[in-house]
Specification:
Layout lengths: L6 H5 L17 H17 L6 H32 L8 H30 L1 H5 L7 H23 L1 H4 L2 H20 L3 H7 L6 H12 L7 H19 L2 H11 L3 H5 L2 H46 L4
Helix pairs in contact: 2-3, 3-4, 3-6, 4-6, 4-10, 6-8, 6-9, 8-14, 10-11, 11-14
Length: 311
């Protein structure tokens, strides 16, 4: 422990003040390493009661946590300032959200592609959606777990910039559901299937990037992304519902189904229904917004053609 640093300093937490003394965290990658080594200490402390694969899964979660912290604090600001000059003109709060969304996009692409691979090539999970060999699914979920914990930490620390009660509830609910996947290896097919929704995240984030950079809503890049966002959102969150729930119905009432604990069944079914209700509501809003922009674009075309000028 550093000279002059007491237990009180280690445990004190004051979000939004520019310092995060929890475990000595001050918002830098080096301080994230302190959290990393603390989590490794927990791994070492509990290794006697854990099998080697469970230790590997915990290690992947820890490495995932540190990687996404590094991407947020170091890689995103460095790369963004070189790729998009407009990044340097953003306010401090906007830069925080920019970095958060950049990391979110990278996580979505990584986990989404891994999810597709499992969906198409993992025969064990596809044949037995409730108790099939969850090895690859656990690895994918452990990556997401590390990301969710990292994002929660950033949300609490930068609450004034990116604080959102909905995201806190979403992350905690997801971590609760992942507990059953990582801890008991149940429902691997359904846990993996849900990660398909991550493919809609990049377009949603890109919409915010265009907005903060000052792109007009009727601009071609913004409209193209808007249409793509609506299409992808529909495909990975709405169109897949019949496949998901038909698979759920096919295992309902079977011996494998009743081997799942009551808590696991409740978390699975209740969270699925609640999540898809929200997906339908979001899809409705996205579709309406997309329709309004396309309609306004069509109305503006005759005026542009009459005077022969373009914006």
């Amino acid at each position: 422990m550093a000279e002059g640093m007491s237990v009180k300093h280690l445990l004190y937490f004051s979000p939004g003040t520019g310092s995060f003394p929890l475990f000595g965290f001050n918002g830098t990658f080096m301080s994230s390493l302190q959290v990393f080594f603390f989590l490794l200490f927990l791994l070492q402390w509990g290794r006697v009661a854990m099998d080697p694969f469970s230790q590997l899964i915990l290690l992947i979660s820890v490495v995932s946590f540190c990687t996404f912290q590094w991407l947020f604090h170091s890689v995103s600001p460095w790369a963004s300032s070189r790729i998009s000059p407009g990044f340097l003109k953003l306010s401090h709060k906007q830069k925080i959200e920019w970095n958060s969304r950049t990391v979110s996009t990278l996580h979505a692409l990584l986990v989404g592609l891994f999810c597709l691979y499992i969906l198409f090539f993992d025969e064990a999970v596809n044949q037995d959606p409730v108790w099939g060999d969850p090895t690859l699914v656990k690895i994918n979920v452990s990556i997401t777990t590390g990301y969710l914990i990292s994002d929660l930490l950033l949300i609490f620390y930068y609450w004034r910039a990116i604080g959102d009660k909905f995201f806190v509830i979403h992350h905690l609910a997801a971590l609760y559901a992942y507990y059953y996947v990582l801890g008991q290896g149940m429902l691997p097919y359904f846990a993996n299937f849900r990660l398909l929704a991550e493919f809609s995240t990049p377009c949603v984030n890109q919409r915010w990037f265009f907005e903060v950079l000052g792109y007009p809503k009727a601009s071609k890049p913004n409209m193209t992304n808007g249409v793509l966002m609506a299409v992808v959102f529909f495909l990975v969150r709405i169109a897949v519902m019949p496949v998901y729930y038909s698979r759920m119905c096919s295992v309902y009432g079977t011996e494998a189904f009743y081997k799942v604990s009551f808590g696991g069944r409740s978390a699975w079914i209740f969270s699925s229904i609640c999540l898809d209700i929200m997906n339908v509501m979001w899809m409705h809003k996205i579709a309406r917004g997309c329709y309004k922009v396309l309609r306004s674009r069509r109305k503006s075309k005759p005026e542009i053609q009459e005077n022969g000028k373009t914006d």
